[in-house]
Amino acid sequence: MSMKIAAENSPEFPMKTKVNSVVIVREYNEERDKLGVEEIERRCETGQRGKPTLVTDLMGDPVCRVRHFPSHIALVAEYGEEKEIVGVIRGCVKTVTTGGSNFVKLAYLLGLRVSPTHRRLGIGTKLVQKLEEWCKQQGAEYSYMATDCGNEASINLFTRKCSYTKFRTPTMLVQPVHAHYKPVGAGISIVRLPRKSAETIYRRVFANSEFFPKDIDLILSSNLNLGTFMAVPKKFVPRWDPKTGILPPSFAILSVWNTKEVFKLQLKGVSALKYAFCVGSRLLDAWMPWLRLPSFPDVFRQFGVYFLYGLHMEGKHASLLMKSLCAFAHNMARDDGECGALVAEVGAKDPVRETIPHWRKFSWAEDLWCIKKIGAVDEDRNERCPPSDWMKSRSSTSVIFVDPRDI
Ligand SMILES: CC(C)(COP(=O)(O)OP(=O)(O)OC[C@H]1O[C@@H](n2cnc3c(N)ncnc32)[C@H](O)[C@@H]1OP(=O)(O)O)[C@@H](O)C(=O)NCCC(=O)NCCS
Hints:
Blueprint: E1 13-16, E2 22-27, H1 30-44, E3 53-57, E4 72-79, E5 84-98, E6 103-114, H2 123-137, E7 142-148, H3 152-161, E8 165-168, E9 171-176, E10 188-193, H4 195-205, E11 210-213, H5 216-221, E12 225-233, E13 251-258, E14 264-268, H6 272-287, E15 304-314, H7 318-336, E16 339-346, E17 367-373
Parallel strand pairs: 6-7, 15-16
Antiparallel strand pairs: 1-2, 2-4, 3-14, 4-5, 5-6, 5-11, 7-17, 8-17, 9-16, 10-12, 12-13, 13-15
The structure holds coenzyme A (COA).
Domain N-acetyltransferase: 23-208
Pfam families: Acetyltransf_1
GO molecular function: acyltransferase activity, transferring groups other than amino-acyl groups
């Protein structure tokens, strides 16, 4: 159930900007604001002339990136007498682990955009502040955001103006979907887990990680979740029943999230030569799959992405099992027909990082997550010793669970 502020009761926050014009920050209203927000998204995506740009199509739903959280909201900034929509931000609140089995209520702020013609007027800052107020009303104790390490404007806004602290730097790994299938290792079985078994296993193996969501059951039962899969040495399969909750001595596990129902991507601004090279590599790979060319998918038309999450491995030959599992996920994406890439995001020192196939050129070495304490921590929530201060305590784990709804 959505915990959004009802549109008619939504508070309005007049403010004076540096140019002395009135800006109102209020809750997004689909009927009134959809076109205005789509226009901002479009204007924010205009890349540098002559450079390739990855364009996101939110498929007519500007709230799509937070819709899958039970508690979510979008705010817009309205400018001047014309009430032009010049800014937007989305947010949600969820309960997650902080490492060591403790839970906190955490706000996630995302999709902040200010129209290029209205920047440096304090509008972005105001949107963040108003969203934080809403998150506090929902009981959030911490708030975090994720950005590209090179996004100076966003980093300055959050760290200098809004007192966020640089916190974690997970790695985004991107693998294109090739025209050929990838081989799954001999002697390895891929088993699809029943939802309940997947939940039990995840709650156990990610108990001490950071950012593991308490409502993992909701994620696993979402129609965007294409399944949870485990790679197990074939010799264990006859003796192992996933429903018992007992784990085999060696295994790798991951789940596949279908983001193409939420947004689509498209690469624009590529030179004719690069375009021809990419199309050529694809054709060759399709005609001669035995060459196993690392062909380039057709990313010049809109394409979808499968997000791999909940990646964990244990036991002997675990990395081989994880590689096979990733190959299996790749083949799922290849069969989909509309999927151009597989993406995974993991902690910078997570052992699975080295085993996930990816193209370095398209992977972000460091995504930056910034965090801020925005409310008092509810100490009764944690049976064990409550988290003293998540931001100050040194991370006890290298494992970050990246919620597929955050992507
Ligand atoms: C990032 C963004 C939202 C900032 O919006 P804005 O309304 O211009 O931000 P503000 O006016 O509130 O700026 C607040 C502070 O952020 C920093 N900042 C903003 N733009 C900056 C820039 N281009 N370079 C460096 N610092 C910048 C400054 O510290 C600024 O304070 P100052 O103006 O007193 O120096 C806007 O540039 C944008 O929409 N960018 C494209 C989308 C994006 O990157 N979103 C963030 C995703 S997390």
